[in-house]
Design goal:
The complex is a heterodimer of chains A (210) and B (557). With 210 residues, chain A is an alpha/beta fold. Chain A has helices at residues 23-35, 46-52, 72-81, 97-105, 118-149, 154-164, 169-176, 180-193, 199-208, and strands spanning 15-19, 40-43, 59-64, 88-92, 110-113. Chain A starts with 14 loop residues before the first strand and ends with a helix. Chain B has 557 residues and is an alpha+beta fold. Chain B is elongated. Classes of the chains: A alpha/beta (210), B alpha+beta (557).
Chain lengths: 210, 557
């Protein structure tokens, strides 16, 4: 199913947020992403990023695991607390493996050891973008469907539920103890409010809202 | 004697002159006789004018006067007003026998004891005196004191008259005192200190069992002996001085503490903590001067165990500090790896970017210049890190000293042995005789050289472990004297070193180990170089390799 089909327009503005205390690592990674025109933004500390972060950021986070001040793991925890959906790719130096394992356990998307294969990094950023878009669209679509369903009156909602269960108008009328004509009115009102033209679209709305 | 429910119980009450009792409390002489121990004989009538006095007396008694039958539960025929304060019931409650003394008040555990006391006294025709507990109407437990005697014999039972009073407060105080005494005794019995009391002339009065164990003397051996027999020599004179200061009031504080040495019966000396307190008490023996008696209580704690624990802790700390110094090498390697990793990561990414700019066929070709420039900067950064390390190792060279090589090797062996044990391996020492080694000391920085030896032992052990000890689990540490100095060899039976790898063996960051930094041999090599020799290796005839270097003798020899 196409996203536009159900009225969702995804923001294509995904950015790779690079957080590393080493200026050279930041700058070289920035140059590498420039070669493939991948939008990115650099931060020299976890704190700097966390101050910038407001929940609207889309894309992914490339995060050095051990930094002075707030560590990568701490930033990961803080973002988790603010219900962030940003996937995190950790970059680790030597001897950070136990920390990387811990980061993965806490839900990091991936980790890479310095120095790394540049192609690998690019591939993983793209995977992170896809994963983030999927999670976000699933969440957005659900929210959108719930918003639309909230517009229905309770009678329209009853009719919608029974219709999407596959019941015919006649049996709905019997169940709700109203006339078939009234069922038709509720049904067409509901479809109008939900911007659905076919029964199939109604069923999709039902599925996405669950 | 067994108390059976008396069939005559119901007959008791009519025998009492109720109107008399109601009106003036009581006019019965026997009650007074029993209670107040007067000698008025039984059945003597109280003069009428005495009755109001007695009534008021009975009313104000701090307790309860009574008459009852000595049978089960002691049914009361008469009680005085004091009963309400004592047990919470009125006279009529008790006299009508809706509550029975034995059944309702006396604590069940105490009943048998009370019965026995009464029976044995009554049989001898004597008054009885007994203390027991009762439960009052409010469910409160009270201790009471009862005194009474048999005054009559009626229908097969003795008639008792007597007096019961509340002694709860006294009992509680007694109990508290008993607990306190028991506690104090328990403390003295369980202390780990020797407790000794002496008189003002220094003679030992008492000692506790700990003292006997600590010193090996029994009480009879030391009783009335001067306390000095327990002290080690140096403090003997001091002790007399100390006593006289005490006795002449120069030491205002009567408690004093110090650490000292004591002497056991077998003559051995041991360290103690000594605390002395003066106890002043009045003498209770009339034969003595009724003056105050000066006594001293001394507590002596054996410090032997603590001293040796302290010594052990000190040795361990020193050992640890030493290990720390030796581990600097390992720590340095980790921080070096981090420092080098950053520029390497950047170089790699800049290089990739450059390639992509060139391949992109777009107008970004001018960015290649930028990328190359930055690669060059990062390469220099990495170089600076290595240079910095080399300077660090050189700086440490200042602490050269003259040392017996065998001594140095044994020390490092002690440290490496722990690690060898963990790996199930053994380090074999093959050293020149101590007498020769002592004659020809070497000149080196012992800590740095120990770092080198430890590092070489570790490498060797890891190599042997990686071939599963195919050729045994012994690694050898050998010293040999030659004309230049002492040659130190570390001989393993491990996998050996491939020809390829041998070429870059002493270069930084070359390692065959999964977790290796490739810094150990590089740093070791520069340390040996600073000692004017070269760290080298050779393949053994059979298996494994031998690393060796020579340390120069001190110049004077």
């Amino acid at each position: 199913m196409n996203r536009s089909d159900i009225g969702v327009d995804l923001d294509k503005e995904q950015i790779a947020y690079i957080v590393d205390d080493d200026e050279a690592v930041r700058d070289s990674m920035s140059m590498l992403l420039e070669t493939i025109d991948l939008p990115h933004q650099c931060f020299s500390s976890a704190n700097e990023f966390f101050e910038y972060y407001d929940g609207s950021q889309k894309g992914c986070l490339i995060l050095d695991i051990s930094m002075p001040g707030m560590s990568g793991l701490e930033l990961q925890e803080k973002l988790k607390e603010s219900n962030s959906l940003l996937p995190i790719i950790f970059i680790t130096g030597h001897g950070d493996i136990p920390m990387a394992v811990e980061a993965m356990r806490r839900g990091a998307l991936d980790f890479m050891r310095k120095p790394f294969q540049e192609d690998d990094l690019i591939k993983r950023i793209q995977q992170a973008f896809d994963s983030e878009a999927n999670t976000r669209s699933a969440r957005d679509i659900k929210q959108l469907m719930l918003d639309k369903l909230a517009l229905l009156t309770s009678r329209e909602k009853q009719v919608f539920d029974l219709v999407t269960e596959g019941q015919a108008n006649k049996s709905i009328a019997y169940d709700l103890d109203i006339s078939e004509r009234t069922v038709e009115v509720h049904r067409s009102q509901a479809m109008k409010k939900l911007e659905a033209r076919t029964l199939a679209q109604l069923v999709r709305i039902k599925i996405y809202s669950e | 004697m067994k108390y059976e429910p008396s069939p005559h119980d119901s007959n008791i009450r009519p025998s009492l002159d109720e109107s008399e009792l109601e009106g003036t409390d009581v006019k019965n002489s026997t009650l007074i006789k029993s209670t107040l121990e007067t000698n008025i004989s039984k059945n003597t009538s109280i003069k009428n004018n005495a009755a109001p006095l007695l009534g008021s007396l009975l009313k104000n008694l701090p307790g309860m006067a009574y008459r009852c039958l000595n049978c089960k539960d002691w049914p009361m025929e008469f009680v005085s007003e004091g009963c309400f304060a004592l047990c919470g019931y009125t006279r009529s409650d008790i006299e009508e026998q809706s509550v029975l003394w034995g059944k309702c008040f006396t604590v069940p555990e105490d009943i048998q004891r009370v019965e026995n006391a009464i029976v044995s006294a009554v049989n001898k025709g004597e008054p009885f005196e007994v203390e027991y507990r009762i439960t009052t109407r409010n469910n409160e437990e009270k201790w009471v004191w009862e005194r009474g005697r048999a005054v009559d014999f009626r229908d097969g039972n003795h008639v008792l008259e007597g007096f019961i009073t509340d002694i709860t407060d006294r009992k509680l105080a007694e109990n508290a005192l008993m607990h306190e005494e028991a506690f104090a005794k328990a403390v003295v019995d369980t202390v780990v200190e020797a407790v000794i009391t002496i008189d003002d002339s220094g003679k030992i009065d008492t000692i506790n069992s700990v003292t006997q164990e600590m010193f090996g003397y029994t009480l009879t051996e030391v009783k009335d002996k001067n306390i000095r027999i327990l002290m080690a020599n140096p403090s003997n004179e001091e002790y007399d001085l100390y006593m006289s200061r005490h006795l002449h009031g120069e030491e205002a504080n009567t408690a004093s503490e110090r650490e000292d040495n004591c002497r056991r019966k077998d003559g051995s000396i041991f360290p103690v903590h000594l605390s002395v307190r003066e106890v002043i008490s009045e003498t209770s023996q009339p034969s003595q001067n009724p003056q105050e008696v000066r006594k001293f209580v001394g507590l002596i704690r054996d410090l032997t165990a603590r001293r040796s624990a302290e010594q052990e802790a000190r040795e361990q700390r020193e050992q640890l500090a030493h290990v720390d110094r030796l581990n600097i090498l390992g720590e340095m390697a980790i921080s070096i790896a981090h420092e080098i990793n950053q520029p390497l990561t950047a170089i790699s990414m800049y290089a990739q970017s450059g390639i992509r700019f060139i391949d992109s066929e777009s107008s970004k070709i001018d960015r290649v210049h930028d990328a190359l420039n930055k690669i060059s900067i990062q390469a220099r950064r990495a170089g600076a890190v290595i240079e910095h390390i080399q300077q660090l190792t050189k700086q440490q060279n200042s602490r050269h000293e003259e040392i017996d090589c065998n001594h140095l090797i044994r020390e490092v062996h002690k440290l490496a042995e722990v690690e060898a044990n963990l790996r199930n391996m053994e380090i074999v020492l093959d050293l020149v005789p101590d007498s020769i080694s002592a004659l020809k000391p070497i000149n080196c920085d012992p800590i740095q050289i120990q770092q080198v030896i430890l590092n070489l032992l570790r490498n060797g052990m890891e190599s042997m472990q990686s071939n599963d000890f195919d050729n045994g689990n012994e690694i050898t540490l050998r010293t040999l004297h030659d004309d230049k100095g002492v040659k130190i060899s570390i001989i393993d039976t491990g996998v050996g070193i491939s020809k390829d790898f041998a070429e870059r063996l002493f270069m930084p960051f070359s390692s065959t180990k999964d977790s290796g930094m490739g810094m150990g041999l590089s740093i070791s090599s520069s340390i040996v170089k600073a000692h004017h020799d070269k760290l080298d290796f050779m393949h053994n005839d059979t298996t494994g390799v031998t690393f060796f270097f020579t340390l120069p003798y001190t110049e004077s020899t």
